[in-house]
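QUALITY CONTROL LOG
STEP: pairwise intake check
CHECKER ROLE: data steward
CRITERIA: each record must contain a sequence immediately followed by its structure tokens, with no blank fields

ENTRY 1 OF 2
RESULT FIELD BELOW
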Amino acid sequence: MKRQIGKLFLLFLSLALVVRGQSPQSPQMVPAATSNIVSDTMDVRHVLDAYHAAVLAHDGARLASLFLPQGSTWINVLSDEAYARVKAKSPNATRVRVGSYTDFAKLVSTSKASFDPTHTNMTIHTDGTVASVYFDFIFLVDGKETNRGSETWVLVKSDGGWRIADITYSSNPPL
């Protein structure tokens, strides 16, 4: 009976992969690959949780340790509305700003304000080597909304585990 259920599971999984436009490597590899993807997805989620905890705790060192030390990018893109407001005040303003996770980590560790980033509508995709995360966010400072938008992260699996290689987010602060 268990063997028949296992065969049905493999058949269903193979069919699902074909429907999605993929073909399985071999029936023996599908369950292990699926198991690893589930585990890696959970590990990526743990990085997001650690990021949130580090921001709440003002732990800039812990926050910085979540990033790939060499080559990580931090990009902020103003929404149409936010860009129009900034441009009206400062004609030389730029829409896309490249920053650094180290600058954010320093802000987190030195600020007296209470930070609370919230993440909703999260989607995680991974093949076990690289991962992308997409979600909506609201960033609260001392309980007040200071920014909102959508955010995407790229993570890589390094020798030390999952690390953030890139954060790019839209920025639509309230008036």
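ENTRY 2 OF 2
RESULT FIELD BELOW
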Amino acid sequence: MSAALDDLDRKILSELQLDAEQSLDEIARKVGSSKTPVWNRIRRMKEQGVISRQTVILDAEALGLEACFFVLIRTSEHEADWQNTFLRALRERPEVLEAHRLAGDIDYILKVRVKNARAYDQFYQALISEVKIYNVTALLSMEEIKSTTILPV
């Protein structure tokens, strides 16, 4: 269920997505409001779950995590025990930035960030030692064309 947001809420969200470190005064000035209503709206949107958390975005390459793999997984297992083991394994692996269950020929896609191909192989070996997987295809991203956390509000 989506929250009811008005234009001012959307402006506030856009500003927070650009820079959550801005002061309430800065945000209020940019969205054409005052500090208290902006604070109240941010608090309400947090309570509603529209704003789930605030964080810092790190540069993966600056940290030596230069390889980004998209991992396509097919499984012949669809029982609850297998799925629980698989999901636990993914959640415990810090290399997995995203994991999605898909409709179609591929069951899951993972976004994995590691130092290099050797590090990916270590990740892969650890994963298949924990969970039975029918087929895995790893695709190395040659160039990141667009990456954003900014949602179109």
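INTAKE CHECK: passed for both entries
DESCRIPTIVE NOTE, ENTRY 2: The first helix runs from residue 7 to 18.
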